[in-house]
Amino acid sequence: MKTGSIIFLSKRLKRFFWVKKMMNAEFRGDLRYWASQYFKRDWKIFPLPYQSKIPMMNDWQNRATGDFDTFKGWLDSGYEKVDGDGSRLEVGGIGIVTGETSGIFVLDVDVSGNKQGAASLSALEAKFGKLPQTVEQQTGTGGRHIIFKSFAGCKNSAGKIGGDLDARGNGGYIVAAPSIHPDTGKAYTWTIEPGVIPLAECPKWNIRNAERKADAIAHTTGGITNGQRNATLTSLAGTMQKRGLSDVAILAALMADNTARCNPPLPEAEIKKIAASIGRYPAGEIIPTQRRENTPVVSIGGNELMKKEFTEQRWAVEALIPSGLSILAGAPKGGKSWIALNLAESIATGSFALEKIEIERGDVLYLALEDTERRLQERLQNLGLDNEDLSLLTCVTSCPRQNDGGIDFLSEWLTEHSGARLIIIDTLQCFRTPHGGKVDDYASDYETLTELKNLADSKGVAILVIHHTRKGGDKDGGDFAESIRGSQGISGTADTLS
């Protein structure tokens, strides 16, 4: 059941063979739509090639436009890179000029690879206070573009605010939705769209004076001498743990304080040991003074097990998606979301999945975390569902990350919808809590998926997670599970793989 299911699916996708062509037309429509939204806010934009971050034009700072007809002309007829030579390049992305030109200043939180931008930001917020809510974009690598109002003299910087935290001001730009990231193939998406809330003022501590304040704190709080280092840093770690900071954020803060204040600094291995001792307890939990009780042993005899009666296996889609945790993996832009949407609407309407499999009607929760409501409506219309009763389908385009309330949200929805048959998470990367630094990928992936599997098993519902395969996938005919992006903690946890 875990391998070969992708072949089973592909044979039932006749109605989806035209998907790629339609997605191209839809993508061009998204470019027009988002360009119009940026122009409404007087943001200056310029064209990018498809799946590229490199501007198509020279002197883009001065040639970026705020005129919709100009951009529409580039999109419809191509951009003439060399004036007068007649050749035109297809526009496939959008860049936004930052700084006073567009009135925006951007904090770029990099979490790609082993980058620790999220941990660095958490450490800064623990010292100086939380950032105000403002417009925000998720990058194609799962990072964050936090958009503030610009201020006089705002500058670009790289790593000066904190590790893997960059600033984009005068003379800079960001890649913007719906552009596709060149390495991951994932779209840039707005988690808080422009116009939904006003742009926040840039906190002085965050960008303008972060380095100066950090240095001031290191000097005014005094050094930590030999004999006090372990106790002081352990106390600091415990305080951050009670405030709900992640293990990665705590480690980053301890490493920074160790370098700035400890005389002499503790070895890196000792800092990691302190962080690990605190990280054994869930964020926000009061650390007990005594050792906690061990998990109880649950056992059953072989004869008793064989006589035990269990309820019949439930299926969201007969012989394809059972109750429990399933993963649908494939290359970016390979039609996974179309398959997921077809399954969702089939169950919500009680029709046939993939035009062939009869479905029992029930409630469906579809986390379309890379989509907008507009795109979802267009896709449902393209599936011919204008006049269908979709009252049992709940679509969500933004929700908390897994460890920030996401699991609680899913659990509460299941409690409120006793007839639920399927939850779709599209995609895993948009739902799971990002991690940075040197962590055990297998342990992290296994923990992430186990939490979802436990929820599915406890509620007797199917959870379908949409995920990506590695570049090249299983084109050589190898084990399909090996082609799934991430560690084997992902494929090893799921009940079925497709």
How would you characterize this protein structure?
- With 498 residues, the chain is α/β, with parallel strands linked by helices.
- It has three domains: 18-107 and 134-198, no CATH class; 221-277; 313-497, Rossmann fold, CATH 3.40.50.300.
- The protein contains 17 helices and 21 strands.
- The strands form six sheets. Strands 6-7-3-5-4-9 form a six-stranded antiparallel beta sheet. It has a six-stranded parallel beta sheet with strand order 18-17-19-20-14-21, sandwiched between helices.
- Strand 17 (363-368), helix 13 and strand 18 form a beta-alpha-beta unit.
- Helix 9 packs antiparallel against helix 10.
- The radius of gyration is 25 Å and the shape is flat.
- Residues 1-23, 209-222 and 286-294 have low confidence and may be disordered.
Task: Give me some keywords for this one.
single chain, 498 residues, alpha/beta, Rossmann fold, 6-stranded antiparallel sheet, 6-stranded parallel sheet, 21 strands, 18% strand, flat, disordered N terminus
Binned strand content: 15-25%
Record field, number of beta strands:
21
Strand order of the largest sheet: 6-7-3-5-4-9
Mean pLDDT: 77
- The CATH class designation of the largest domain is Alpha Beta
Distance between the termini: 9 Å
Number of helices: 17
* Gyration radius over CA: 25 Å
By CATH, the architecture of the largest domain is named 3-Layer(aba) Sandwich
What is the CATH T-level topology of the largest domain?
Answer: Rossmann fold
Mass-distribution shape: flat
How many domains in all?
Answer: 3
Name the poorly predicted regions: 1-23, 209-222, 286-294
**What is the percent of helical residues?**
25-40%
Major sheet details? 6 strands, antiparallel
| The CATH homology group name of the largest domain | P-loop containing nucleotide triphosphate hydrolases
- What assembly state would you assign to the polypeptide chains in this entry? single chain
